[in-house]
Amino acid sequence: MRILFVGDILGKPGRRVLRAILPSLVDRYSLDMVIGNVENIFRGTGVSRESINDVKKSGVHVMTSGNHIWKRSGAADLLKEETTLLRPSNYPPNVPGRGMMVWESNLGIRVGVMNLLGRVFMEPMECPFRTSEILLERLAESGVRLCIVDFHAEATSEKSALGWHLDGKVSAVVGTHTHVQTADERLLPKGTGFITDAGMTGAQDSVIGVKIEPSLKRFLTGVPQQLEPSGKNLMLNGVFMEICDDSGRCLEIRRVREYLDTKESKWNN
Asked: Which of 3, 45, 120, 123 might form a disulfide with 71, Cβ 3.0–4.6 angstroms?
């Protein structure tokens, strides 16, 4: 299986660059599957039905998220209705939606996708380490050997620790949330691909995707500002992974960064 994981897709600019660039990446890497983190696809935070449909039409097969999935009204209904939209699995019981799914390719290869939320510097949640063990037991019972984990977390130490905890148990652990692509992709000793953060799909000329001036004003004054996605110098960040169909081991993990040649400010909402 040849899989692309697209880092946090931010607002309309992120959706635009996804539509423009993803088809060429599908051809270049002969992709079988595309996973994308979508917790910020609607105006920079949260989701909407229109934005979800936009991402699906772009060619994303499974959508993961994080703590911002609840920022817009209607998120609970979307999580119930959209079978390929995940929220972190370590929320308490009875929270709408699901945190893991099994996707099947045209060739009949099944891939488990697991979404987890970190706890360090974030909200108090169920333990992501223990939750992953419970979910892996379910995958094993269903005979699924390939599994990609989106670990939406703040602390690099927590992400690294989960990578080592799941080494040899999942195909890859891909970090999200910080919007900054890290340069530490590697194959762990027991065959799990790992990267601390896949990065962001949106505007490079920004403060982690949003317009610079309001961000500066917030830091300089301490006064909350209305933050909006920037549309300048658009890029797609993510990771390409090749996974062995039989063993589920990661054979290759590689950073992906592609730019869309535009600085048009009209794509900023």
From this structure: 45
